[in-house]
Write a structure and sequence with these properties.
Chain lengths: 253, 390
C-alpha cells in the first residue's frame, strides 16, 4: 500500500539566466492499494517523475506525506527503500558487467542470500524471457534488453511495492508484452504496483486504477470507466483532455 | 556483508575490466619510472665522464703547439675538431666546447700582444656546461702561466697581479649536488599517484551519473557513506598500485643500471622504499578522495575531467616550486600536501635524516583531508541537486 497526500515540491533553476522557482508538484494525493496496478497518467512535465522520486526517498517533499507500507518516506528512508523496487527514469547498467553481475550487485546491497538470489533470478529470467542475456556483458544491449535487466535488478529482493517510471518508453511490442505479463503476475501475488505514463492506450491495458496528474496536481482518480463517466466523455482520451488541460490550453493547440 | 565492501568489490571488477585503467597504470608506472631513471643515469654518467676525461676539442691545434703541450701536461686529452664543428654543435651531435685557435697565435704571443681564443659551444646542450667550465679553467691557467712568465721577464713578482686568491669550498657533498636532478624520482611517484586515481575516480562518480546508474544505486537501502567509502577504496587502491609499481620500476632500474655514479647519487634501498610507501600511501588515499570530490561536481564525464585536472596540475606544480623559488627546507613545508612528501623524500634520497614527525605530520594531514572529502561527498549524494543535475 502506497499512500500519498498533498505532496508539494518546487526547486530553483536558471531560466533565461535568472533564478526562477519551478513548481514541480503542488498538490498530489492518491492511494495505491496492494494487488492493484495504479497508473499516474499525465502530460510531460505534470510532476509524475518528481512524485515517484519523493515516494522513493530520493527527493524530499516541501509539504505533504508519502508512506510506503505504512512507513513515512521522509522519516525512515532506508526502511522505505528496503521494501520498494523502482524502475526509474534513469535505468543505466554497468556496461563492463554481465547482466547477471549487474543484478547480483543489487541483490548483495539488499542482503539477498545467495540461494534465494539464484532462485529469484531464474524466476525473473523466465518471466521476462531473458535467460540468454544473463551471461553477456550489457554493453550494446537494446532498449528492451536494458529494461529487462533493470527490472530484474529492481525486483531481485522481491519487494512488496514496485514503482515504474514510464516503463514502456522505447520498448518494442514483444518487450511491452513481457512487461505486461510480469506486472500481471506480480499483481496476482498481491504486490502494490505504481507506474507513470503519458500514453493512454498503454495505461488502459496495464492499469486497474488511474490517477490523472496535470500541472503538479492530481485531478482525478478511479477506474478508466469511472473517469470517463465523471468527465462525461465517450473515450478515456476525451476524458483525459477535459481533465488534464485547461480549456484555454486546448483551444490554443 | 558490509555495503562498502560490496561496492568496493563491484567497482574493482568494473575498473579492472576497463582498458583505460590498465593503460594508465602500466604507462605511468612501468614506463615512466625506469625510463626516467635511465635518463638520469645516462645524463649523470656522461656529464661526469666528459668532465673527468677533460677532453678538449681544439680547432687548428697545429697553430699553438705550446698551448697543446700545456693542456696535455694538465692531463687533458686533445682532440682535433671536425671541420663542420659549428653544425655538429648546433645539432647536438657534439656535446662539448670547441677551442678555436687563430692562425697567427704563436707569432702574436711572441710579440707580447693579447690574443683572443674563441670557445664555441651551444649552451642549450646541457652536458656541454660541465665541459666548458673545465676547458675555460684550463685556458685561464695557460693565460696565467704566460702572464707570470712575462712579469718575471720584467723582474716583477706574479703575486702583484693576484691580490686575492679565490678557492671554492662546496659544502654540498657530491651526492647532494647530483640529488638536484633526483627531484624527478619522488615527483614521478607523486604524479603517478594522482594519475592512477583519476580515471577510476571519475568513472565511479560523474561516470555513474552520466550513464544513469546513480539514481537506481541510491534506491538501495544503504547509506551514501558506505557507497562513497567503497568507491573511494577502489580509487585509492588504483593510485596506490601505480605508486607501488613505480617504486618497483625504480628498484628494478637501479639493479639494471648498476651505475656507480647513480649509486653514489642516490640512496634507494629497502629503507627508502619503505619510507616512500609510508609517505605515498596516505597521499594516494588523499588524491583518490579529492579527485572523486572534484569529479562529483562535474555534470558530465568531460566536466569532471576538467575539475580533476586542476588537482593534477597542482600536484605537478607544487613539488617543483622550491626548485624555482630556491626555498630551503622549512617546517611549514611539511604541512603542504605534495610539497611535504616531495621535501621529505628528497631528504631521504640525499641521505639526510628523516624523523618520525616528518612522516607523521604529512600523513595525518593527508588522512584528515581524505576524511573531510569523503564526508562532504556522502552529503553531496544526499543532495537532489547533485544527484539529478543535468
Amino acid at each position: 500500500m502506497i499512500e500519498v497526500s498533498n505532496l508539494a515540491k518546487s526547486f530553483f533553476a536558471r531560466v533565461e539566466g535568472r533564478r526562477a522557482q519551478i513548481i514541480a508538484v503542488s498538490d498530489v494525493s492518491f492511494d495505491a492499494p496492494d494487488g492493484t496496478i495504479t497508473a499516474l497518467l499525465g502530460p510531460n512535465g505534470a510532476g509524475k517523475t518528481t512524485t515517484l522520486r519523493i515516494v522513493g526517498t530520493l527527493v524530499a517533499a516541501d509539504a505533504g506525506m508519502a508512506r510506503v507500507g505504512g512507513i513515512d518516506a521522509r522519516r525512515e528512508p532506508r526502511a522505505v527503500r528496503a521494501q520498494l523496487g523502482m524502475l526509474s527514469d534513469a535505468r543505466g547498467l554497468y556496461a563492463r558487467l554481465t547482466a547477471r553481475e549487474n543484478i547480483a550487485y543489487y541483490a548483495d546491497l539488499r542482503g539477498v542470500p545467495k540461494p534465494e538470489f539464484e532462485q529469484r533470478l531464474k524466476a525473473l529470467a523466465d518471466l521476462l524471457d531473458m535467460g540468454a542475456l544473463l551471461d553477456r556483458r550489457t554493453e550494446g544491449f537494446s532498449t528492451g534488453e536494458r529494461m529487462k535487466v533493470a527490472l530484474a535488478r529492481a525486483l531481485i529482493h522481491d519487494p512488496q511495492h514496485l514503482m515504474l517510471d514510464e516503463p514502456t518508453n522505447g520498448l518494442d511490442v514483444l518487450s511491452t508484452r513481457a512487461l505486461r505479463r510480469l506486472l500481471g503476475h506480480l499483481r496476482s501475488e498481491g504486490k502494490c504496483i505504481v507506474l507513470s505514463s503519458h500514453i493512454m492506450q498503454e495505461v488502459e491495458q496495464l492499469a486497474d486504477r488511474l490517477v490523472i496528474v496535470a500541472h503538479g496536481r492530481s485531478v482525478a482518480h478511479g477506474t478508466a470507466a469511472e473517469i470517463r463517466q465523471r468527465a462525461g466523455a465517450a473515450s478515456l482520451e476525451d476524458a483525459f483532455v477535459a481533465l488534464a488541460y485547461d480549456a484555454a490550453e486546448v483551444a490554443a493547440r | 556483508m558490509n555495503a562498502a565492501w560490496i561496492v568496493f568489490r563491484k567497482e574493482l571488477v568494473d575498473a579492472l575490466r576497463d582498458r583505460r585503467t590498465w593503460f594508465v597504470v602500466l604507462l605511468s608506472s612501468l614506463l615512466a619510472g625506469p625510463v626516467s631513471l635511465l635518463l638520469i643515469a645516462s645524463f649523470v654518467s656522461s656529464a661526469e665522464e666528459s668532465a673527468a676525461r677533460r677532453e678538449v676539442i681544439v680547432a687548428n691545434a697545429a697553430a699553438a703547439p705550446a698551448l697543446v703541450n700545456f693542456l696535455q701536461r694538465q692531463g687533458a686529452m686533445i682532440t682535433d675538431a671536425p671541420s663542420d664543428y659549428r653544425e655538429q654543435l648546433r645539432s647536438g651531435r657534439l656535446q662539448n666546447a670547441v677551442v678555436v685557435i687563430p692562425p697567427d697565435f704563436e707569432q702574436r704571443l711572441a710579440k707580447g700582444e693579447t690574443v683572443r681564443i674563441e670557445v664555441v659551444l651551444d649552451e642549450t646542450a646541457s652536458r656541454a656546461q660541465a665541459a666548458v667550465r673545465t676547458t675555460t679553467a684550463l685556458l685561464r691557467g695557460y693565460s696565467r702561466e704566460l702572464g707570470s712568465q712575462r712579469l718575471l721577464a720584467r723582474g716583477v713578482s706574479p703575486q702583484v697581479l693576484q691580490p686575492i686568491e679565490i678557492e671554492e669550498v662546496n659544502l654540498a657533498g657530491s651526492r647532494a649536488r647530483g640529488a638536484q636532478l633526483l627531484f624527478l624520482v619522488p615527483w614521478l611517484a607523486l604524479v603517478g599517484a594522482v594519475v592512477g586515481a583519476i580515471s577510476v575516480a571519475i568513472d565511479v562518480t560523474a561516470g555513474e551519473r552520466e550513464r544513469g546508474s546513480l539514481e537506481p544505486l541510491l534506491m538501495n537501502p544503504v547509506t551514501t557513506g558506505s557507497i562513497v567509502l567503497g568507491k573511494w577504496a577502489v580509487a585509492a587502491t588504483c593510485s596506490a598500485a601505480v605508486v607501488v609499481l613505480t617504486l618497483a620500476g625504480f628498484t628494478a632500474a637501479m639493479q639494471f643500471v648498476r651505475s656507480e655514479n647513480l649509486a653514489a647519487l642516490m640512496q634507494f634501498g629497502a629503507p627508502e622504499v619503505a619510507l616512500f610507501l609510508a609517505l605515498l600511501l596516505p597521499f594516494s588515499a588523499m588524491v583518490g578522495a579529492l579527485n572523486m570530490l572534484a569529479a562529483t561536481y562535474g555534470r558530465s564525464h568531460k566536466e569532471a575531467q576538467t575539475y580533476a585536472s586542476y588537482i593534477t596540475m597542482i600536484v605537478n606544480f607544487v613539488p617543483i616550486l622550491p626548485l624555482f623559488l630556491t626555498i630551503r627546507d622549512a617546517p611549514w613545508q611539511l604541512a603542504v600536501p605534495a610539497l611535504a612528501q616531495q621535501t621529505v623524500l628528497m631528504r631521504a634520497l640525499r641521505g639526510e635524516s628523516v624523523g618520525p614527525a616528518d612522516i607523521l605530520l604529512p600523513g595525518v594531514i593527508a588522512l584528515a583531508l581524505t576524511a573531510a572529502a569523503l564526508l562532504l561527498q556522502a552529503r553531496l549524494l544526499r543532495n537532489e541537486r547533485i544527484v539529478f543535475s543535468r
